[in-house]
Amino acid sequence: MTHWSLYVDESGQFQRHDGSLVAGLLVPATARELDSPTLRRRFEEIWGPAPFPPHAAIYGDPIGQALLAAIKPGPHGMPAGRHAGRRREASRGVLSLLENTPFSARLEELREGVNTTLRLDDVRTATKLLRRIPDTGADIERLDDVANRQRTEMDALLRRSLDRYPGSRVLLLRGDHEGHRAVVPGTRIFRDRYVDALEVLLHRLHRVLGPADTCEVHVLTRDVEVAGIGDATSTTHFGGLLLRELLDVVRVATGSSVQCRTSGGAVHYRDRRATLETLHPFLVLCDWVATTCRPATQDFGTSLVDLERHLEAARLPLGALRAGVVTPALGALPMLGAAGPAEDRVRAALTPGQRLPPQPAAPRWVADQVSEWVNAARGGAA
After folding, report:
1. What's this model's pTM, rounded to 2 decimal places?
2. Which one of 1, 124, 183, 187 is CB 3.0 to 4.6 Å from 245, fit for a cystine?
3. Would you say 267 and 216 are in contact if contact means Cβ atoms under 8 Å apart?
4. How confident is the prediction for the chain on average, in pLDDT?
């Protein structure tokens, strides 16, 4: 019996054709074993000084780096890291330019320590304004050099963190297909691209864990629609009871005996050390995986083999994208996949006597992973 922890986050808006992704880090250790003060210090060394936790889409962006340099350090943020001086110097030109734009009021807030939580909208607004100013290329290039050093160190930290726990797996599921708006049977949750992709990820989870294994599931929350009384619907944070409902539905559908439990209520991407509400460091790593792996999965012409090689060369441990499955036990199968027609064909192949729906043609890597699962399930009858 092995005790596992699963950490889940997503990237993208889950709108049509935006290539959104749900990512999971599956690690053979308990959450307590993985919650390392050393790992937190590594984040501080790479990304400080800045508010914690470091959000990949903001902290890995060159303009995000400039805005981080403007923030007045808070009592519970990350202390100065190894790149603090280089970031500060590289940011001077960009921050000087932003002082003469409509972003100046927001910049003053950051400098005064008011509302220092950076949002993607902050980065997007500042970037848009800078594009209107000529001759900013050299300033942004200096910032990107700093950001690239940090991105490289974060990739190495991710790889080392997973390598410490042999058997760790990375699950990546696309969720941008055209779905049907209906409640997931056995739950109160309405289907959307995110819910469908998360459901596929949980199906993969139950197919790679042993019958006596246990797993603690940590999912960073997002808004989902749920069924109310009668015809009413409401929007709420996903997690807690809703997550347990989905976990139970998937366990029954897969015939799994794996015991999965949740960590409590809805988990937000935040850290409030003053109130002892701290974010687990592996959720920070999962945010990094979802954001940085997503662009590679949007190339429709890439084969599965080439995509796996690219992700392993860039940041993931060798073999983390494949796992042996309980049924069928025919070697390591891809942990990269997609919701919708691709998963429909996989599930049909895993159900004896069920007719296979059509093979999806694109993206190429999605079709490749379907073929591998079907061949394993049907003995080569893809």
Report:
1. 0.95
2. 187
3. no
4. 93
